[in-house]
Structures are given as structure tokens and as C-alpha cells.
Specification:
The protein is globular, with a radius of gyration of 21 Å. By secondary structure, the chain is an alpha/beta fold. It has nine helices and 14 strands. The protein starts with a strand and ends with a helix.
């Protein structure tokens, strides 16, 4: 069976080259006679894998030396708890709520500290990013929290909020490694890798060292303390070895393909193909205000539930998979991550134009 074009929001499309390499090495990694899935996480061979992965992501993102890179478990969702547990000093955090995941993080943080919602776009179903140039930042806020790219609603921050000197924490799950960023603008960045970096089961957290509490936090389980993982180079317990190995292979693929500046160029080009079509169509309609559109996740609607169901079914039959919108919003959504080739987006637009002709 030939490969489909997979527009899933996550777990999502991975570079074919990486999958082929993993298949070739599945039974025998570099002549060691076993799979990465089978080797000890304490072995020299796995130690090389995780150290190389860290070195490569540091190079790709330009991560300064005073930031730790942690390969963690529990997906991005566990970070909704770990962040307030570890970063609370004054016991206050400010949240900009621009979608489901920021909302969940805000609600979860409320279990551990005073969480303030200082801006939100919920009034218009999260179809825009609020003005963040002069927010009512709490004087004693331990951090200001954002979800940088909203997978479900297709919005993104093209400019970071003015945190008035407070630490910025950002969930970058669905825009991870899609474009260059300045890591020093953040105190902590994290993302579940299953959207743009690797297989589900790994969360990468990049944290400035001075934010890691150095004392034992008596009210926080050992496994949920950043210090535990930082002190043990992400090997306190058995990590998700296979997932980390695939992430490492994706980092190498990114380096071979021109790094993050090249990815941004390709991603903008792909997104423009789809947005240009949506803007010219009077049948399909994008749902996000133009200035806040994501280059990773593109939601769109027809406005007729039966036609939308027909579109998703016929697209699937044509080899264009996972175009159904998130259950909370309906419609359609195309996630066009790094590994989605330009031809995939061109095929989608071709199919949309044909569908529009036949169903207008």
C-alpha cells in the first residue's frame, strides 16, 4: 500500500527518510545485534543516542549553556502540573488563554497556586490572539504562560507578549522546531513531540537553570521535580528510549535539510498555498483572523455539516487522511507540519477545488 498524505494534528506525519532509517535499524542498531527498543538505557550505546540528540537540538535551536534540555514522560499535559509545582515562589501565575490547551494549563495551575487569566480570546471561539502589548501582569507573578501555537484553533503568536520582565513560559507542542526562535526570550519552553518532532510518549522541556529549585520540594513527588531529571541527564528512571532515538533522528534530518530557517521558509510556502486558496474560495472559509494564522494548523469550514462529512470521507478515499476538525469545533483542519511535503498541500488544494466545483 502506498503512503497517504497524513494531515493529522498528532500523532502526526514523520519524515519518510527517518522512518526508513528506523526500519533498517529496527533489528540491529549500528551492528550491536539488538534494537534500540531492547537495549539498556544505562548502556554506552543509548548514552550516545541521548547525548547526541541533546547536542543536535541545542545546535538547531541555539540553546544557551545556562538552559537544561530534559527528555520527559507524561506528554505536554504533565507539564501543566510540573510547571506550577516547580516554579511557584510567590504562588501566583498569569495566563493568556487562547485555546483548549492554555485553558487546561490555567485550570491545572489553579490547583497549586493563584492562577490569573489576564487575557483570553474565548469570546470569539479562540479565532484570534489578544493584544499582548500592555497586559495587567501581576506584580508578584512567578511566570506568564502562553500556548504559542493553538493546534485546535489554528492561531499563533507572531509576536511574543510583553511580560514586563516576568518569566515567559511557553507550550510550543505544535510549532516545535518549525522556525527559529530566541530561546533566551523564555524561561521555560516545552512540547509534546508527537506533532512535529517524534512519536508520542516524549515531552521535551527546555528550562533556564536558575528556575530549577535546588532544594528538595517536600510537597512535590520526586519524579515531578525538574531537579531530579536535570541532575540525572534525563536518566533518573527508564526514559522513553525509542521515542528519544526517533527525535534524535528527526534532529539529524532537520540539520541535513537546512535547519530551522529552511523549515520556516518551506512551512510558510506550504501554508500560503492553502491560505491563498481559502481566501479565493467562496465555498470554503478559513476560521482565523489573517494576522494570527498558524503555519502549522489550518482549520476551515464549509458551513454545512453534511457537506463537511462528505468532504472528509471523499478526501480519505483520495489518500488525504485525518482532515476532520477537532471534536470541539467541527469543520476541517489540515495540520501541515515540517514532514508534510509541499506536494501534499498541493494535492489537498487540487482536491478542494474539485470538490468545490462538484458541490457548489
Amino acid at each position: 500500500m502506498s503512503r497517504v498524505y497524513n494531515f493529522s494534528a498528532g500523532p502526526a506525519v514523520l519524515p519518510e527518510e527517518v522512518l526508513k532509517e528506523a526500519a533498517e535499524q529496527m533489528l540491529d542498531y549500528k551492528g550491536c545485534g539488538m534494537s534500540v527498543m531492547e537495549m539498556s538505557h544505562r548502556s554506552k550505546m543509548f548514552d550516545d543516542i541521548i547525548k547526541e540528540a541533546e547536542a543536535d537540538i541545542r545546535e538547531l535551536m541555539g540553546i544557551p549553556d545556562n538552559y537544561k534540555v530534559l527528555f520527559l514522560q507524561g506528554g505536554a499535559s504533565l507539564q501543566f502540573s510540573m510547571i506550577p509545582m516547580n516554579l511557584k515562589k510567590n504562588g501566583v501565575a498569569d495566563f493568556i488563554v487562547t485555546g483548549n490547551w492554555a485553558k487546561k494549563a490555567y485550570q491545572e495551575a489553579g490547583r497549586f497556586l493563584t492562577a490569573n487569566k489576564i487575557a483570553s480570546s474565548e469570546d470569539k471561539t479562540f479565532t484570534y490572539i489578544p493584544d499582548c502589548s500592555d497586559l495587567p501582569i501581576s506584580e508578584n507573578a512567578d511566570y506568564v504562560y502562553i500556548c504559542q501555537n493553538n493546534t485546535i484553533y489554528g492561531t499563533t503568536y507572531h509576536k511574543l507578549p510583553n511580560t514586563k520582565g516576568k518569566t515567559l513560559v511557553s507550550d510550543v507542542s505544535s510549532c516545535f522546531l518549525s522556525a527559529p526562535i530566541n530561546v533566551s526570550d523564555y524561561g521555560l519552553i516545552f512540547g509534546g513531540v508527537q506533532k512535529n518532532v517524534g512519536p508520542a510518549g516524549v515531552c521535551i522541556t527546555i528550562i533556564r537553570e536558575d528556575l530549577i529549585p535546588q532544594e528538595d520540594l517536600k510537597d512535590v513527588p520526586v519524579m515531578l521535580q525538574y531537579k531530579t531529571h536535570a541532575d540525572n541527564d534525563s536518566l533518573y528512571n527508564t526514559p522513553p528510549c525509542w521515542g528519544i532515538y526517533i527525535c534524535g533522528q528527526v534532529f539529524k534530518w532537520l540539520k541535513r535539510n537546512g535547519g530551522l530557517a529552511e523549515m520556516e521558509k518551506r512551512n510558510i510556502e506550504k501554508a500560503n498555498i492553502l491560505y491563498d486558496y481559502l481566501d479565493s474560495s467562496d465555498f470554503f472559509k478559513g476560521t482565523v483572523v489573517k494576522e494570527d494564522r498558524s503555519i502549522m494548523n489550518v482549520p476551515f469550514v464549509i458551513g454545512d455539516k453534511d457537506l463537511e462529512a462528505k468532504f472528509v470521507a471523499e478526501a480519505k478515499a483520495a489518500g488525504l487522511e485525518n482532515l476532520k476538525g477537532h471534536r470541539t469545533v467541527g469543520g476541517m483542519r489540515a495540520s501541515i507540519y515540517n514532514a508534510m511535503p509541499k506536494e501534499g498541500v498541493e494535492k489537498l488544494v487540487e482536491f478542494m477545488a474539485d470538490f468545490e466545483k462538484k458541490n457548489k
